[in-house]
């Protein structure tokens, strides 16, 4: 298991290692075959320079490696969002707030990471820059998950301690689950989205992937410029739920086994877990029947580009964006009202629970070859994309928060456990996830 940020920081403080030495290790990982196609622009010289800076109080990242999804502005660089059509656009004048906050905390930015073009897919395939293979399987090239594909691979291979990304319908939690790392989607309003190319301003969330829950807390505190309230309450003090509706449908056997095994372990540890119907989850498909928020909101941004340069888009991405052109204003307003009503009813239904437990996604990572670019595989691609987005996207619709952490047994393909609740329950979700992680590590 790779050391996390906290462990490495302790070694830095005790003099057992140095930031330049750790950056050299990160660069070696980024240049390894396991990290192929994970970066669209390496920043190795810049990372070495940042790591060489003298240690300063109040800089908790201490010159350690952080990767940045190609969605975020970095001063002096072009933000292309994994596309070809934006590759020649002018460089950003300023860092996005998220990048600025990480840099101020001492981050050594090791590179811009690959992603699904314009962040519009949970699979992670990119026809322009290649698709980074999942870090979990050296024998079979499996999908990394998306849209923050390169970010996940950078963290899982040791090239970065924090992978800055975004989550509109699962783009942090899906690749975290499939690569066996941690991904935390905070309540969207807690972190500024400025300087990040939008997909759906209603749903977009700026957040990160890490190697542990304690690192996820640190990353969130830096990105949100807030302190997470820690709780010493033991796991049995929380009331947890498992939602039977939607979230457990069609689980692959490996996912079902890992999830059930985790629930049994939690119950042995004294956790109080109720199974609840939560029928409101069955309404998600109907609420999004006209396409949801992402197509019309992304089409509003992309329309001028599509009109002059649609041929340079990934056809699968362009098709999803162009769906937004067909949504009428009244349908969009109905969608806004339906979401508001649904959130209110979900909050009422979950009022007695501290968090809900679900599989992050219902499948383990399939081979890239099954969904590689090509019209013959489009049906398989869109079917898989829908499966991957199904569970995590419900939390975005809820305006909630959720953390995915690995729950598979050694030797198994990664499976994510999602701990979630509604808006502004972030600290409770993080505290519960931290205890679950510690319990699982003792198994």
UniProtKB/TrEMBL annotation:
Q: What parts of the sequence cross the membrane?
A: none
> Which organism does this record belong to?
Variovorax terrae
Question: One Pfam family of this protein, by short name?
Answer: Amidase
Q: Which domain of life is it from?
A: Bacteria
According to the UniProt entry, its GO molecular function terms are: catalytic activity
* InterPro entries for the chain: Amidase, Amidase_CS, Amidase_dom, AS_sf
The UniProt entry, under PANTHER family, shows:
AMIDASE AMID-RELATED, TRANSAMIDASE
Name-wise, this protein is: Amidase
Supply the source organism's classification.
Bacteria, Pseudomonadati, Pseudomonadota, Betaproteobacteria, Burkholderiales
Q: Which residues form the Amidase domain?
A: 37-430
């Amino acid at each position: 298991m790779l050391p996390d940020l906290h462990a490495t920081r302790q070694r830095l403080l005790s003099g057992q290692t140095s930031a330049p030495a750790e950056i050299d290790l990160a660069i070696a990982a980024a240049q390894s075959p396991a990290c192929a196609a994970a970066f669209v622009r390496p920043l190795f010289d810049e990372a070495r320079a940042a790591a060489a800076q003298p240690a300063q109080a109040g800089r908790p990242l201490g010159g350690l490696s952080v990767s940045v999804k190609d969605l975020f502005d970095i001063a002096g660089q072009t933000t292309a969002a994994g596309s070809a059509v934006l590759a020649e656009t002018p460089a950003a004048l300023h860092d996005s707030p998220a990048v600025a906050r990480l840099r101020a905390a001492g981050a050594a930015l090791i590179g811009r990471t690959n992603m699904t073009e314009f962040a519009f897919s949970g699979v992670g395939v990119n026809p322009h820059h290649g698709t980074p293979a999942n870090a979990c399987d050296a024998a079979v090239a499996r999908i990394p998950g998306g849209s923050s594909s390169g970010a996940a691979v950078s963290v899982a291979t040791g090239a970065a301690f924090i992978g800055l990304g975004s989550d509109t319908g699962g783009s942090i939690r899906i690749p975290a689950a499939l690569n066996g790392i941690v991904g935390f989607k905070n309540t969207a309003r807690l972190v500024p989205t400025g300087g990040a190319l939008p997909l759906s301003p209603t749903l977009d969330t700026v957040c990160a992937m890490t190697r542990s829950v304690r690192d996820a807390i640190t990353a969130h505190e830096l990105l949100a410029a807030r302190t997470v309230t820690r709780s010493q309450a033991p796991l049995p003090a929380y009331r947890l739920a498992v939602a039977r509706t939607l979230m457990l449908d069609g689980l692959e056997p490996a996912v079902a086994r890992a999830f059930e095994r985790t629930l049994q372990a939690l119950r042995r540890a004294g956790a109080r877990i109720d199974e609840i119907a939560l029928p409101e989850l069955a309404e998600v498909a109907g609420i999004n029947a006209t396409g949801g928020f992402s197509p019309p909101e992304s089409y509003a941004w992309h329309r001028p580009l599509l009109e002059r340069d649609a041929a340079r888009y990934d056809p699968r991405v362009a098709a999803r964006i162009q769906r937004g052109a067909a949504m009428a204003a009244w349908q969009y307003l109905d969608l806004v009202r339906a979401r508001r009503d649904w959130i209110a009813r979900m909050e009422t239904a979950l009022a007695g629970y501290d968090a809900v437990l679900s599989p992050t996604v219902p499948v383990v990572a399939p081979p890239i070859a099954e969904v590689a670019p090509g019209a013959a595989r489009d049906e398989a691609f869109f079917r898989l994309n829908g499966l991957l987005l199904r569970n995590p996207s419900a939390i975005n619709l809820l305006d909630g928060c959720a953390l995915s952490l690995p729950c598979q047994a050694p030797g198994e393909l990664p499976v994510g456990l999602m701990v979630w609740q509604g808006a502004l329950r972030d600290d409770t979700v993080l505290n519960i996830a931290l205890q679950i992680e510690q319990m699982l590590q003792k198994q």
